[in-house]
Amino acid sequence: MADNKPTTVRINKGNMLLLASLAIGLVVFVIIIGLGFYIILSEQKRAQTQCDDIAIDLAKSLNAQNRIGQMNDTVEHTRELIYLSRQSLSIANNSMPVYANLADLLVNESVEASSMVEKERLNQIDLAVSNCRETVKKLRHARTEAGNWLMPWFIENQLYINNVQLVASNNLSNITSPAVIKDLYKFDLEKNYIEKNSKLYYGNINAKLPPPDLKLNFYFSTLPACIENTISPVRLANQDDFVATALIFDDKDEKKCNKPEQLPEGVRVLGNMIIRTDNKEGRFNISASSTATAQGSTTKIP
Question: Considering the domain boundaries, does residue 64 fall inside one?
């Protein structure tokens, strides 16, 4: 009986050691699993931060040097010029025929000027699209393919840009309606081109003139106005407030890309970050998207 006691003690110690080892192993396993989830959540935040930064960088170029604000202003002045020249021609034909030829010449020149302004507007759209695409290509080229080791079994990649969209909203533009031209102001109100209280034109519209100039286009892009020297900064925005007007980059099919009809108000970036496990890509795919709007107009409204 006495001879069995040492054996029993050794067995009990062995069982305790086994239980302690299992408990420690279980704790370590739980810690590893928890750490893995923490890494995934933190990397999701990191992916969103990278996406936000890219969207901000792209949005900065959209209204560089107030190109959208100046274009809106030029379009409005051209529209106003054509309307007034038509009025002058009508007055000349009815009351002063001797000036009819001169008035007709002014109408033709103003219409020709409108065509030149529209060509430049389209050129500015091409420039905005080209600048964004060039920036995206540089960012993709600088992307680290090898990835960074987070833990012995986790490797992260930088954000991979899937596609880039230009976006716009139905907010106001930075241009006020010429209220001193009462007939034109009344026409704009009837057509719902302007917001009555602020007298600002709505953005993302084609403010057609009445016949015989119905075929002419006068596009106003959405852009926050400069009010009391306050300029709206480049900023992140709620994606639900904007609709895509063009797809300017797609990593799978470039044929899907197109150009917007209006100068863009903002940009939306969609991307993903891949966390590889055991050198096998695609185990965790973290998606991110972000929308940013351009700086507002720097020209103070009257």
Answer: yes
